[in-house]
Amino acid sequence: MVTPEVEYWRTRAREAIASLARAEAPTIAWVRRTGGSPARLGVFPASFNPPTRAHVEIIRRAREHYDLEEIALLPGLTNADKRVYEAALEDRVAMLLAAFETDPTIAIGVVSHPFLVDMIPPLRREYATSEIFFLVGSDTFERLLDRQGRYLGRYSKPYPDRMAVLEDLFSASRVIVAARGAFTCSALEQLLEEEAAPYRSRIACMELSEEARFISATEVRWRIRRGESVASLVPEAVEAYIRTAGLYQ
């Protein structure tokens, strides 16, 4: 049974999503704001399908290691690669609201465009003076480099090549890369030397605990389909939401 609290969260998410239907330029529809004006803003765009304990650890470590005063969580209306999700966007936003209900430093919104460089203008409208730190997993960072130029033509403005995209991105923001799975910070150093040497000073690597680095949303969904416990993989509030809403069955 869907509780009134779950339906309230879904309604807030639906209102934000609906407001993006009219957006042509990159736009963020905010579901929850902190009301602050941080000097250092973390921005974590991800599918959150569902939010996991790895997401929570990335947020915690980035906040501690890089003095981030606020972190904006931004699931997207669209995704650079994926077209279909097992949970609706309104449920994924609602799970974030549940997971971070008592954290006053977390803002939550829905972003219209999937690429980091496109998120900078709408972020600047809300955070004109904040230094922006994007938080990404190592797999997302490898896609961000776009070594094959797969995404050219899909950004909100035209770029002649991928290096022009990276120049725009790193001139306006920094990127903190969380080492996930078997990927290491040493591997990132090698990757930067080969692909993004001019921007090394704008990119940092963050190690996670051995437990968190191997947690994935894919495994969470797989376990639920098999009727197995996910208590060790997701925050307690997210587990309760999944159970109440009957997600990932």
Automatic annotation (TrEMBL):
Q: Which key words tag this protein in UniProt?
A: ATP-binding, NAD, Nucleotide-binding, Nucleotidyltransferase, Pyridine nucleotide biosynthesis, Transferase
* A single MF term (Gene Ontology): ATP binding
Instruction: Identify the EC number(s).
Output: 2.7.7.18
According to its UniProt record, which reaction does this protein catalyse?
nicotinate beta-D-ribonucleotide + ATP + H(+) = deamido-NAD(+) + diphosphate
Biological pathway: Cofactor biosynthesis; NAD(+) biosynthesis; deamido-NAD(+) from nicotinate D-ribonucleotide: step 1/1
Where does the chain cross the membrane? none
Domain Cytidyltransferase-like stretches = 44-221
What's an example Gene Ontology biological process for this entry? NAD+ biosynthetic process
Q: Which InterPro entries match?
A: Cyt_trans-like (IPR004821), NadD/NMNAT (IPR005248), Rossmann-like_a/b/a_fold (IPR014729)
- Report the top EC class in one word: transferase
The answer to whether keyword Nucleotide-binding applies is yes
The family line of this record is: Belongs to the NadD family.
Q: Describe its function.
A: Catalyzes the reversible adenylation of nicotinate mononucleotide (NaMN) to nicotinic acid adenine dinucleotide (NaAD).
Output this protein's name.
nicotinate-nucleotide adenylyltransferase
Origin organism is uncultured Acidobacteriota bacterium
